[in-house]
């Protein structure tokens, strides 16, 4: 019998995620029914939101059920199709989960062109993370040329795109990232004007030096001290796209101290969930795709090899061990 491997959620973490919260299983390849498509995954995307789904606390999305394939974005090739919209060999993006294969009715599958854009980029710069950057920047921060934009987790999948898009708009862009290697990449490769290493111990002073005219718009990915430091540098009428608070995803205390600044600087703060703005995805993904194919957007990937490596890679993502978009190569 033909089988494939998948990873299910075995237990819900309390605090830190551990390998034993996952279970690797072999399951039979299902028969393809009328209207269905069987996809062999080339890459699995690992994303911070998965930590939220592992918990059954009330959230904007339903929890990941126990003993079922972990949720996840995938790109791969159609290996069998009984759906007229898809042919064998098509490269498709979908939510195939932590598995080597998935069967789908095609409703959530998107055919993509890999002539000028590598397949893996459809899970990063030209996928959900890129779209997240595009939405927060264009629809919440709305920066003007000459303004200073700050972005945390700056070397990551979302942050790296935020900063490059803001540079294309003529902004001064200041990144915040963990470690000198990530900061060097953000400035030297991605073209940010400055990057502050929050692990170096002088976050506030370093941010002041990097943003001497204050900060007009923040793209917040981290929360806690990193967010507080950026808030302390805001100018009047600053806009904040509150995208993520990864510093607190394992239950850490990330309470803000500078809340008063929201009032005194008359700040506009908007949290958002990118999947609630699907009507904008075609426009955003087209723009991102054109920029990438035209060499105007750079991206970097951390690639784990094989499905069995996914739990450790995911645990690493929550600790900043990834350097760029975290993927798992499956085929
Ligand atoms: P990244 O590729 O940026 O990887 C996560 C990075 O976060 C790590 O590399 C690390 O970078 C940083 N990090 C991890 N733990 C901590 C910590 N304790 N303190 C500070 N930084 C930490 O991930 P993504 O680009 O995919 O996601 C970035 C953010 O965007 C996340 O908060 C995510 O939840 C959010 N997001 C929100 C969406 C939405 O719709 N609202 C959609 C997609 C993502 P470093 O080493 O520099 O600290």
Quickly give the CATH architecture of the largest domain.
Alpha-Beta Complex
Largest sheet: 7 strands, mixed
Integer average pLDDT: 97
- CATH homolog superfamily of the largest domain: Medium-chain alcohol dehydrogenases, catalytic domain
Tell me roughly what share of residues is in helical segments: 25-40%
Shape, per Cα inertia axes: globular
- Given helix and strand content, the structural type is alpha/beta
- Number of continuous helical runs: 9
The helix/strand order is EEEHEEEEHEHEHEHEHEHEHEHE
Number of structural units classed as domains: 2
Task: Give the class-level CATH name of the largest domain.
Answer: Alpha Beta
CATH-defined fold name of the largest domain: Quinone Oxidoreductase, Chain A, domain 1
Radius of gyration: 20 Å
* Distinct compounds present: NADPH dihydro-nicotinamide-adenine-dinucleotide phosphate
* Unreliable segments of 5+ consecutive residues: none
Strand proportion, as a percent range, falls in 25-35%
Q: Could you tell me how far the N terminus lies from the C terminus, measured between alpha carbons in angstroms?
A: 20 Å
């Amino acid at each position: 019998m033909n089988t494939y491997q998948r990873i299910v959620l075995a237990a819900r973490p309390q605090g830190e995620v551990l390998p034993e919260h996952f279970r690797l299983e072999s399951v039979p390849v299902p028969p393809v029914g009328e209207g269905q498509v069987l996809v062999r995954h080339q890459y699995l995307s690992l994303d911070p939101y998965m930590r939220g789904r592992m918990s059954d606390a009330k959230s904007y999305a339903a929890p990941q059920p126990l003993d079922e394939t972990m949720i996840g974005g995938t790109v791969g090739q159609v290996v069998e199709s009984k759906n007229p919209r898809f042919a064998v060999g098509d490269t498709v993006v979908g939510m195939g989960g932590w598995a080597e294969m998935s069967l789908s009715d095609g409703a959530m599958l998107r055919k993509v062109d890999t002539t000028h854009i590598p397949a893996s980029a459809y899970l990063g710069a030209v996928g959900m993370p890129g779209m997240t950057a595009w939405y927060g920047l264009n629809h919440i921060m709305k920066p003007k040329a000459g303004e200073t934009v700050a972005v945390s987790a700056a070397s990551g999948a979302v942050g790296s795109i935020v900063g490059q898009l803001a540079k294309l708009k003529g902004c001064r862009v200041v990144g915040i990232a963990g470690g000198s290697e990530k900061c060097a990449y953000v400035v030297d490769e991605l073209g940010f004007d400055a990057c502050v290493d929050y692990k170096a111990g002088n976050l506030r002073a370093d941010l002041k030096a990097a943003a001497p005219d204050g900060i007009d718009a923040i793209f917040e990915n981290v929360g806690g001290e990193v967010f507080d430091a950026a808030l302390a540098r805001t100018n009047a009428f600053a806009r904040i796209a509150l995208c993520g608070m990864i510093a607190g995803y394992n239950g850490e205390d990330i309470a803000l101290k500078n809340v008063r600044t929201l009032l005194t600087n008359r700040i506009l703060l908007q949290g958002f969930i990118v999947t609630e703005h699907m009507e904008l995805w075609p426009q955003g993904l087209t723009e991102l795709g054109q920029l990438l194919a035209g060499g105007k957007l750079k991206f970097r990937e951390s690639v784990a090899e094989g499905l069995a490596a996914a739990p450790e890679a995911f645990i690493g993502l929550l600790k900043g061990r990834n350097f760029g978009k975290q993927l798992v190569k499956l085929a």
